[in-house]
Design goal:
With 418 residues, the protein is of the alpha+beta class. Helix content is 31%, strand content 27%. It has 13 helices and 23 strands. The strands form six sheets. Strands 12, 15, 18, 19, 22 and 23 form a six-stranded antiparallel β-sheet that branches. Helix 7 runs antiparallel to helix 8 (159-170) and helix 12 (351-357) packs antiparallel against helix 13 (389-400). 50% of the residues are buried. Bound molecules: adenosine monophosphate and glycine. Glycine binds next to loops. The site of glycine has 7 residues, from loops.
Length: 418
């Protein structure tokens, strides 16, 4: 089969790396890809959000199956457009991807189907939002309704901070139209865990649990980022909690989406908080998380192409999905300054040596005059396995040692910060 993967980050590199191992895949393409992805797939210069461009390119190049990995093209209906053109695709249609694209929608769904989550109200008028914040008191969480690159959430310690956040979103339009509706919710406490799960509209098969590290600096300090590293599985996600999550969250969510006429095919991301009252949903995403994907797919022993096909065909209950009985760690090497200002175009050294003892997934890299250079905030995701989590973490940091570029920044406490 000729396969096209849409996207250009570390997540897409991990997907391409795994698909390239499948005997079912004859030619692998990635649009737009990056310098690391170019080592396993042919990169194509179509923007990930260019729905019409992607459909035309896929048609012209006899693509048999498209994997849409990022949130934006999913929300824009790229899977719907591909299907309309007769090209099967992996990923939810826009009417199911809305669980990520609208927090108001997903909160309403959880309320209707009794899926545990933080108590909340939705507002479109600033004065009503401010009055609600005043009445509830702090700490309290203010969220922009739409996609805001993971930055549309403020966990406010004081009433004033919460009000300022609501004003910025609703009055100053800090996140554009994404913030004209806000969700204000109860502040939950407890460790956060990610569970990615394959879904085929009817069945759901959770992958090993994982844990992201969203803050830029050690000790969970500093600004929120796309994710500075991930481990799989985190020790807090016990078999008991996993059973509860399956019964109280995963199965009811897939059933709810089906009942609403929005069957979910693809990877569903459960962002969970293990609160003193039990596991609750913090957020849903309609795709693999990044960098959770890099850690989790490193543990997959089966053919990813077969699983994608099974999701698409409603045969997930029969799919062969096996995982290594090991742990994984992904350490993100970022450009100094990220998530704010940072430099691009810095030459990267030590990649070949690191590749010998780990898999180095590229996130923001480019090829310039035959040299791999930095081309984004998150640059690389060094990923290694171990028989224990401690071993996986030690192997990852050891593997990353030879890599360097100007102003390189990384956290030294991945897997140890909780
Ligand atoms: P989200 O984009 O909804 O995942 O929110 C980003 C981060 O904000 C989460 O990973 C949590 O750390 C935090 N957060 C979101 N909602 C809540 C909540 N209700 N209580 C406490 N923390 C939250
Ligand atoms: N790692 C968090 C996300 O992909 O949304």
């Amino acid at each position: 089969m000729n396969i096209l993967v849409v996207g250009s980050g570390g997540r897409e590199h991990a997907i391409c790396w795994k698909l390239a191992q499948s005997p079912k895949v004859t030619e692998l393409f990635c649009a737009p890809g990056n310098a690391g992805i170019a080592q396993v797939a042919k990169c194509v210069t179509v923007k990930a959000t260019d729905v019409d461009g992607m459909v035309s390119w896929a048609k012209e190049n006899a693509i048999d199956f498209v994997v849409v990995a990022p949130d934006d093209p999913l929300a824009l209906g790229m899977v719907d457009a591909l299907e309309k053109a007769g090209i099967p695709a992996f990923g939810p249609r826009a009417n199911a991807a809305v669980i990520e694209a609208s927090k108001a929608f997903s909160k309403e769904l959880m309320k209707k189907y009794h899926i545990p989550t933080a108590k909340y109200e939705t507002f479109t008028q600033l004065d009503k939002a401010l009055a609600y914040i005043e009445a509830q008191g702090a700490p309290i969480v203010v969220k922009a309704d739409g996609l805001a690159l993971g930055k549309g959430v403020v966990v406010a310690a004081t009433v004033d901070e919460a009000k300022a956040a609501a004003r910025e979103m609703m009055e100053d339009k800090k996140f554009g139209e994404s913030g004209s509706t806000v969700v204000i919710e109860e502040c939950m406490t407890g460790p956060e865990v990610t569970v990615l799960a394959f879904a085929d509209g009817e069945h759901v098969r959770p992958m090993p649990s994982s844990q992201d590290h969203k803050r830029a600096y050690d000790g969970n300090q500093g600004p929120n980022t796309g994710g500075m590293g991930a481990i799989s599985p985190p020790p807090q996600y016990t078999p008991d909690i996993a059973r509860r999550c399956m019964d109280e969250i995963f199965l009811p969510t897939i059933a709810a989406l089906k009942a609403e006429g929005r069957p979910f095919h693809g990877v569903i991301y459960f962002g969970l908080m293990l609160t003193p009252d039990g596991p609750k949903v913090v957020e849903y995403n309609a795709r693999f998380g990044d960098p959770e994907c890099q850690a989790v797919l490193s543990l997959l022993d089966s053919d990813l192409m077969d699983i994608f096909t099974a999701c698409r065909e409603g045969m997930l209950d029969q799919a062969d999905i096996r995982w290594k009985n090991q742990a994984a760690c992904c350490l993100v090497l970022a450009s100094g300054g990220y998530p704010l200002e940072y430099k691009k175009g810095c030459p990267i050294s030590g990649l070949d040596e690191a590749d010998r003892s780990s898999v180095v997934f590229h996130a923001g890299t480019a090829l310039k005059d035959g040299q791999i250079v930095t081309n984004g905030g998150r640059v690389l995701g060094v990923t290694a396995l171990g028989d224990t989590l401690e071993q996986a973490i030690a192997n990852t940091y050891a593997a990353a040692k030879p890599i360097s570029f100007q102003n390189m920044h990384f956290r030294t406490d991945i897997g140890r910060a909780f």
